[in-house]
Amino acid sequence: MPSSFISVPAGRDERFDAYLATPDSPNGGSIVVLQEIFGVNGYIRSVCDDFAAQGYFAIAPDLFWRQERRVALDPAVPDQMQRALALSQSLNHGQAVADALAAAAVAREQPGANGKVAAVGFCLGGKLAYLMAMEPGIDAGVAYYGVAIQASLADMGKVTAPLLLHIAADDHLCPPDAQAAIAAAAAENPKVEIITHDDVGHGFARRGPTYDAVAAERADAATAQRLRASLT
């Protein structure tokens, strides 16, 4: 299963890097993996590798490239956490979505790809997956504990691709009032499904101090079902 960083055109003679994992036995589908605030680090690359093992072309664009290229931070290191927060706060979400769409175009061009693409994001990337599900040519979206989706609920009606939102019941970044607002908005759009995972907090799918195996396995199983239905 080959994997490497590749160069993606961004327009105006600019290019950025993206990590591409290529399946040994493609099922045709492609996935844009949208990073947490820590960049395309070892965890995000492992997510791509796992999707490739399932038969998908998986590409993770370097969304911080306009600020700093090849960011790969460790959330367990305090100064790196602060750096990640600063980078995420200055990220232009519109540009990030455009970059993710450029990465999706590259994935579609891979030999064996069928042209169908999903956006799967975590934390910051969860919010971007929500935004990606409004874009033409995106066939599905999955957001794990997306940050600040509650600030963009006026756009929920623009979601046109099947969208699965994994919400952590004890997520300090998405408190109960925000969860209720998201649920109310999602109820108006039949394309949107919410799974609330009880007794877990933000980052429950990322191996480390916040990891919860039961919730992560349950979420990943639902994600796999959504992706199979939309991409293969």
Task: Characterise this structure.
- The structure is a single chain.
- The chain has 232 residues and is of the alpha/beta class.
- It is 34% helix and 22% strand.
- It has six helices and eight strands.
- An eight-stranded mixed sheet has the order 1-2-4-3-5-6-7-8, with helices on both faces.
- A hairpin with a 2-residue loop joins strand 1 and strand 2.
- The chain is globular, with a radius of gyration of 16 Å.
- The two termini are 19 Å apart.
Distance from N terminus to C terminus (CA atoms, Å) equals 19 Å
**For the report, how would you describe the main beta sheet?**
8 strands, mixed
Helix-residue proportion: 25-40%
Using the CA coordinates, give the radius of gyration: 16 Å
Q: In order across it, which strands form the biggest sheet?
A: 1-2-4-3-5-6-7-8
Number of strands: 8
Average pLDDT confidence is 97
Outline type? globular
Instruction: Write the element-wise H/E pattern from the N-terminal end onward.
Output: EEEHEHHEHEEHEH
How many helices?
Answer: 6
Q: Which range does the strand content fall in?
A: 15-25%
Q: Which class do the helix and strand fractions yield? A: alpha/beta
Can you give keywords for this protein?
8-stranded mixed β-sheet; single chain; 232 residues; alpha/beta; globular; 22% strand; 34% helix
Please summarize what this structure is:
With 232 residues, the chain is an alpha/beta fold. The protein is built from six helices and eight strands; from the N terminus they run βββαβααβαββαβα.
